[in-house]
Specification:
Elements lengths: L3 E3 L1 H6 L12 H34 L4 H27 L5 E3 L14 H30 L3 H28 L5 H22 L1 H4 L5 H6 L4 H21 L5 H14 L1
Antiparallel strand pairs: 1-2
Helix pairs in contact: 2-3, 2-4, 3-5, 4-5, 4-6, 4-9, 6-10
Bound molecules: fe (ii) ion (FE2) (2 copies).
One fe (ii) ion binds next to helix 2, helix 3 and helix 5.
């Protein structure tokens, strides 16, 4: 049986008002609604990524405060899904959707505890969450109502914490890494970037959306792709290079592998 995410009750408990909806054409409302429904599910599914980090943080013996911070992030992602559910209901949709297949979190059997943890932290915080910060900040700027700005502001404040956690951990343990571990992490980065490119490249097939649709939360494909590339090349790659990881070369190799496929 396919698991279902049903947040109708949570959304009803605290309804959200989006004024002026009647003036917006149905297809633009529908594009925004589809995106908020998709986001509701992906925010909920993100909770499991942070949950999987807990045993890894413990195995690597990092400070308790990191374990506590990541434990809180599990709840924050679940809360983001409820915020999205409130927008879904306000846009006239149903906050109930099947959960997509949840991909297994990599086991990293070929790596020691710290290296395995860093692979995940780089992928989750330094890539996914860092890109999320840029995307959500852009959306918040474009939001058409105070209620949507409020929702995006709450999500953004947490995504900033999720991104910073990884960069801080890397600042802490990066200087202790030996050359061999740095080389192994650099090699692993190719797969990390391939995954990121594969995840974000569907934006390239999405058309541009009108300003009015974007103000409700409809995605603008070309602009989202630009934000992704700018963040990876302007923030993630220089940040990883500072720790002696060959991120630039890894991104070039990932790009050519994806283009050749
Ligand atoms: Fe989130
Ligand atoms: Fe997050």
């Amino acid at each position: 049986m396919t698991p279902v995410l049903d947040l109708r009750r949570e959304a009803r408990r605290d309804p959200l008002e989006i004024p002026g909806l009647d003036a917006i054409p149905a297809e633009e409302r529908a594009a925004a609604l589809a995106n908020w429904r998709e986001r509701m599910v992906s925010e909920h599914a993100s909770a499991r990524v942070f949950a999987a980090l807990i045993p890894r943080l413990m195995a690597a013996g990092v400070a308790r405060r990191h374990v506590a911070a990541v434990s809180a992030m599990i709840g924050q992602e679940l809360d983001h899904a409820v915020l999205c559910a409130r927008v879904v209901v306000a846009l006239g949709g149903e906050a109930k959707l099947p959960l997509p297949p949840l991909t297994a979190v990599p086991a990293h059997e070929d790596a020691g505890p710290l290296e395995g943890l860093l692979r995940d932290v780089i992928s989750v915080s330094c890539c996914s969450e860092t890109v999320a910060v840029a995307l959500v900040a852009t959306e918040r700027e474009q939001a058409g109502t105070a209620s949507l700005r409020g929702v995006l502001g709450k999500i953004l404040a947490d995504e900033v914490k999720h991104a910073r956690f990884g960069w801080r951990l890397l600042d802490e343990v990066g200087p202790t890494l030996d050359a061999r571990t740095r080389a192994r992490l650099s090699a692993y980065l190719v797969a990390v970037f391939e995954h990121q490119i594969a995840f974000h490249s569907p934006f390239l097939r999405l058309p541009s959306a009108s300003d009015r649709a974007v103000s409700l939360g409809a995605p603008d494909g070309p602009s989202n792709w630009r934000v992704f590339v700018d963040t990876i090349t302007g923030v993630t790659i220089p940040g990883l290079e500072r720790h002696g990881l060959d991120a630039e070369r890894a991104f070039r190799r990932a790009t050519s592998a994806v283009l050749a496929a």
